[in-house]
Amino acid sequence: MAVVGGGTWCTAVIEQAERFGFDGAIWPVHPTKPLIANLGAFPSIEDLPAAPDATFIGVNRSATLEVVSALARIGAGGAVCFASGFAEAAAEDCSSVDLQAQLVHAAGDMPILGPNCYGFINALDQALLWPDQHGCTPVESGVAILTQSSNIAINLTMQQRALPIAYTVTSGNMAQTSQAEVAQALLDDPRVTAIGLHVEGFGDLRQWEALAAKAYDRGIPLVALKVGASDQARQATISHTASLAGTDAGAQAVLDRLGIARVTALPDFLETLKMLHLQGPISGNRLASISCSGGEASLIADMALDTDLTFPALTDAQHDNLRNALGPMVALANPLDYHTYIWRDSETMAEAWSSMAGDGIDMTLSIVDYPLTNSTDWDCATDAALKARATTNAPFGIVATLPELMPPQTARALAEGGVVPFFGLREALAAIEAAQRIRAPHTLPICMPGSSDAGVLLTEAEAKAELAQHGLIVPRNCIASAEDAELAAQRFEGRFAVKGVGPAHKTEANAVHLNVDLSNVGMVARSVGTQTVLIEEMVTDGVAELLVGIVRDPAHGFVMTLGAGGVLTELMQDTQSLLLPATAEDIDAALSRLRCARLLHGYRGKPGTDLVAVRDAALAIQTYVLAHAETVSEVEVNPLICTPTRAVAVDALIRKA
Question: Same domain for 527 and 550?
């Protein structure tokens, strides 16, 4: 490998490589210094004895261009570009974006990491290009961690959680090589057991689709810590959908579609990777909990309330086995407080703990806090966990309620026996919840939206007419002047809705009047305050009101939002998000996850809705968007009135080019 530059960072790269056990040739390059880190330096790239496999470039941004170009010319394997001052500095230096484009051009077909990144650590083969401290140690297998942030990468390598880290890769600006491309390459190494991605932005979604498909095919689970918000997606919006969906909803929809687990904190990230390394994904959300304290049993039960994890009741077989092991003094339940009658008897403890594992349980947790003073008397718990795991071969973990109450040496002993040592109760639940969400990626490619300026807002009547052509049911309606409203309404039946034509938010403008009878249509129309009005038949047999909206999110595709509708939509915040195209099954599943789903099925004696009609309405709106993907920006139906026999769009909005 080559190291270009003579500063502190370049010296550190050489020292770190030697300390880590790298036994290949290291060639420093510097135009004037004869020695770098006690190694003889070459005056230029052209003077190297051969094309290096990998190069760390530790010079300023302008010189980096020259070095990259020289390396590409001699056929070097690749390079880490350490310098900053490229696209990340665009706000301070308008030339930096162009400089980054020049860097990519100079690299040509030679892969580069960065710029503005530390590089990588390969703990499997004891090779690295890394200019700072790190906590990695040589391993035979383990997880790969990819992040744009070099500082976060350093911190993650310092973990003491019995997590073997095989690769740490930083990508910085990702000028040429993206996280998704690096992760795809790492999937080719059979020693990698799981991949964790700290993601600031996705970039090319097609690369992420390819990554998810390859990872699933190889059986390597992916977990993401997604942060940040795309400035592209912060556009002026006029619909409820856009304010509800937001950028993060789009990011979550991408991860859901790709079958990638998501966590929200670094400790959860590490705990999830550790569980995936030792256990792999789990098939369900059913937990068993064991502790020798009623307080801990109550604590884990309460903490799980905000998750989708459950504690199934004990089966008859579990009940009988536990009674045999624990005797008559213990109240049997899940979570289980087994008291301390059998403490220090690791065989009986293992028998009881094994009775809780398997048999419809996806993960069994034994809560054990090892004291910091003298934990010798807690060795029986470690032994019992290892025996229970060996006996049942079922997913099993020891969890400390506080991270600091899991000694690193105990964690390593548990991990060697296949028991997941969880550092913290909250972190354990987050990891288990993430691990059971990993699944096969969607088979349909994400629909990519156009980028044309969507400056045209259709009237409600125009929007309904266009959506009706794609199968959406709308009320019978017409446009009329205020003076002709009564005459125009005579062709319709029942009571009417009279709406002003023009305001985007008609309710706030007091331009919506409901339950108007024929005799009052003219008077109401004249009071609305607009030159023309929309008159339509009222839907009077509604069971529930939903919102169905789709917005163009440049970073993530088209995001469909399904949720509780009506004027209280944003107050309710009861929504689910999907990416287009969504299948009928996707929509059915999203509707079932809404808190208002019980209304759709019939609640407290009231009739349910025609769920097929609701789904068909969402599919009709999607069909319109897919047909106009190059030009449409927003489509919203709110409310979609759901009745026992149909789903009717009584308000609609379309914004497009």
Answer: no
Q: Are residues 399 and 371 in the same domain?
A: yes
- Nearest of 252, 249, 261 to residue 216 by alpha carbon: 261
Number of domains into which the chain is organized: 4
Residues 499 and 564 in one domain: no
Most trustworthy range by pLDDT among 137-141, 481-485, 506-510 = 137-141
CB 606 within 8 A of CB 583: no
**The domain spanning residue 306 has which CATH number?**
3.40.50.261
Contact 385, 396 (CB under 8 A): yes
What is the band of 444 on the pLDDT scale with cuts at 50, 70, 90? very high
Give the residue numbers spanning the domain of 424: 282-435
Cα(454)–Cα(657) distance, integer angstroms: 4
Question: Do 91 and 8 sit in the same domain of this protein?
Answer: yes
Rounded to a whole number, what is the distance in angstroms from the first to the last CA of the chain?
53
**Distance, CA of 488 to CA of 521 (rounded, Å):** 9
Write b or e for each residue in 332-349: b if 16 or more Cβ atoms lie within 10 A of its Cβ, otherwise e.
bebbbbbbeebbeebebb
Task: Give the model confidence (pLDDT) of 280-318 as tens digits.
Answer: 999 999 999 999 988 999 999 999 998 999 999 999 999
- Mind giving me the DSSP string for 280-293? ---S--BEEEEES-
Q: How far apart are CA 549 and CA 637, in angstroms?
A: 6
**Residues 6 or more apart whose Cβ sits within 8 Å of residue 484:** none
How many C-beta neighbours within 10 Å does residue 351 have? 20
- The gap from C-alpha 584 to its chain's centroid, in whole angstroms, comes to 22
**Whole-number Å distance between alpha carbons of 593 and 585:** 13
Residues 622 and 529 in one domain: no
pLDDT score for 605: 81
Burial class (CB in 10 A: 0-12, 13-18, 19+), 644: middle
**Taking the complete model, does pTM exceed 0.85, yes or no?**
yes
Q: What is the mean pLDDT of the chain?
A: 92
pLDDT band with cut points at 50, 70 and 90 for residue 507? low
pLDDT reading at 509 higher than 80: no
The separation between CA 466 and the C-alpha centre of its own chain, rounded to angstroms, equals: 34
Please identify, among 376, 407, 435, the residue that sits at the C-terminal boundary of a domain.
435
Contacts with 100 (C-beta within 8 Å, 6 or more apart), sequence order: 86, 87, 115, 173, 175
pLDDT at residue 23 in the model: 92
Query: Which of 435, 467, 491 is where one domain is finished?
Result: 435
Helices 205-218, 240-258: inter-axial angle, 10-degree rounding: 40
